Backbone:
């Protein structure tokens, strides 16, 4: 645990001095704010961040892979993996540590969107419970996308490849079930709705707490973290 | 089982490593005793880095067994990693970190208790000349020169005071003054650490290391102290002389008749005859040759012992490896 936190802290610190992280963070905020002013911050509309959370899930599909692409790929590319993995530390320490590190940066990023909430609170009365659930949903979907990004980053030493693979997997998880649901073919549409990232995001954005959603995000994140650890371990045998 | 005083710090038996179809390390065995500085010498692509990576348990071997400080590199990898300091060839560092920040982070990974980290970092910084100039510890790693990066890399491996240091090409990319400084530093480490370092420059290893292991094409070609190696690989003394006063074959026969002389080869050099003489065993036939020339009234313009160097030997095996690789790829 201590070693996991050591890794997490280094990773988090690296984001805060990385121009790339600020650019991606800035673009994420810009896109969120644009959406906020375009479709929410309008006199007469309901004081709800619901459309924003849904839009943010789409934005994160591409923003988080850009944030996570360097995590393992860059260590392999620059060779720091050699000093890292010859220290008394396991792949699990490294992967979980890095996961926590990115999540730290992502939470900080998410926290800046609270500005929009404050702005809204000045002109209306947003429902605290609904907003809290919405943010919980964002944290969960972020955790899933970050673990997907880590997995992709562990597969290759090319950051760009990692970003594209991660964005591809995330986009597939967001879009495919929706497409299947749209076909209306039983029983596949029901199955798809249970596996749909967006369904769960929409639930939380509405303020609905669905245990199935939480379980879905936690297990899928755990699966991708596990795959990342195994992928990183397999490096030795390649 | 931790080693007792007699057992070797590094013990390698029949180590083999295949990268897919490529054989990188071919059944090598050697051992390094406590307190030795061993130089791993070989041309590029000889299998040095691969062997060192196996010793650090970074890479698994395909076959054979290696132990460091008594622990198996595969089965007891964590114990091995606690006891080694490994500096990879390229000295990879996190560019965005600062020197002190990086060393403190590495100290934490190395399980140095929080309270002792600062002292540990200060100690290695002092030792690796990182405490001067004053702002050195606050500089970003990607802004350091090659020499300073190397020092940070070395400081890193010394942090936890490991019994075994594994340094891959520690002086590559340094300027002559830095090479000397690095060499002195490594020599100074022998008292407390067992050191294995690799290089493709013979002169450097000869000066730093008590023992040499010459590796080429994934195999150990020769091993021993530099004195032993010299004797073994260079063979008996060779004497070169140029004289005149008789026909070349007569000169060769006369010289060849001396007791201490073995084989004689003849070459014409203008009016002069050049004789290349292999001495018998360790004898030095120069004075005998001179007396012979004086007696027979031959004129000598050159009489010297050819000091064949390890360098020649090393260049030769490097050359052989290169031609072999070319053959294979052809």
Residues:
């Amino acid at each position: 645990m201590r070693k996991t936190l050591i890794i997490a802290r280094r990773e988090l610190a690296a984001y805060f001095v990385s121009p790339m992280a600020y650019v991606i963070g800035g673009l994420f905020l810009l896109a969120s704010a644009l959406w906020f002013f375009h479709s929410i911050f309008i006199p007469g509309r309901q004081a709800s961040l619901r459309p924003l959370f849904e839009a943010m899930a789409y934005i994160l599909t591409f923003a988080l892979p850009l944030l996570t692409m360097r995590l393992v790929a860059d260590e392999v590319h620059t060779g720091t993996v050699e000093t890292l993995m010859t220290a008394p530390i396991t792949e699990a320490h490294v992967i979980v540590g890095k996961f926590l590190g990115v999540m730290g940066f992502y939470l900080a990023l998410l926290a800046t969107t609270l500005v929009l909430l404050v702005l809204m609170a000045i002109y209306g009365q947003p429902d605290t419970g609904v907003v809290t659930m919405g943010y919980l949903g964002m944290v969960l979907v972020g955790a899933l996308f970050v673990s997907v990004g880590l997995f992709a980053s562990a597969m290759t030493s090319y950051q760009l490849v990692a970003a594209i693979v991660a964005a591809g997997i995330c986009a597939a998880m967001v879009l495919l079930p929706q497409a299947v649901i749209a076909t209306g073919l039983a029983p596949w549409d029901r199955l798809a709705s249970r596996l749909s990232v967006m369904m769960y995001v929409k639930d939380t954005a509405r303020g609905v707490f669905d245990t199935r959603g939480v379980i879905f995000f936690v297990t899928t994140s755990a699966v991708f973290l596990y795959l990342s650890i195994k992928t990183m371990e397999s490096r030795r045998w390649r | 089982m931790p080693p007792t005083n007699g057992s070797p710090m590094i013990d390698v038996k029949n180590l083999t490593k295949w990268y897919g179809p490529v054989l990188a390390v071919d059944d090598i065995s050697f051992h390094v005793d406590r307190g030795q500085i061993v130089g791993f010498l070989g041309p590029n692509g000889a299998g040095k880095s691969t062997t060192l990576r196996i010793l650090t348990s970074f890479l698994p071997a395909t076959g054979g067994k290696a132990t460091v400080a008594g622990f198996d590199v595969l089965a007891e990898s964590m114990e091995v990693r606690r006891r080694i300091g490994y500096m990879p060839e390229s000295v990879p560092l996190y560019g965005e970190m600062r020197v002190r920040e990086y060393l403190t982070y590495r100290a934490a990974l190395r399980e140095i208790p929080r309270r002792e980290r600062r002292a540990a970092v200060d100690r290695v910084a002092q030792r690796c000349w990182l405490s001067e100039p004053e702002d050195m510890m606050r500089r970003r790693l990607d802004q350091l020169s090659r020499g300073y990066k190397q020092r940070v890399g070395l400081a890193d491996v010394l942090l936890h005071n490991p019994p075994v240091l594994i340094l891959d090409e520690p002086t590559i990319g340094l300027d002559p003054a830095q090479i000397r400084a690095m060499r002195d530093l490594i020599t100074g480490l022998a008292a407390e650490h067992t050191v294995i370092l690799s290089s493709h420059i013979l002169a450097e290893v000869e000066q730093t290391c008590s023992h040499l292991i010459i590796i080429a094409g994934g195999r150990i070609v020769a091993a021993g102290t530099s004195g032993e190696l010299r004797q073994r690989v260079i063979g008996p003394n060779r004497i070169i002389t140029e004289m005149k006063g008789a026909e070349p074959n007569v000169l060769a026969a006369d010289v060849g008749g001396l007791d201490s002389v073995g084989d004689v080869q003849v070459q014409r050099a203008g009016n002069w005859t050049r004789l290349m003489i292999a001495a018998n065993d360790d004898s030095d036939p120069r004075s005998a040759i001179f007396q012979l020339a004086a007696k027979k009234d031959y004129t000598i313009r050159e009489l010297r012992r050819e000091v064949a160097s390890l360098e020649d030997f090393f260049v030769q095996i490097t050359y052989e490896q290169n031609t072999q690789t070319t053959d294979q790829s052809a």
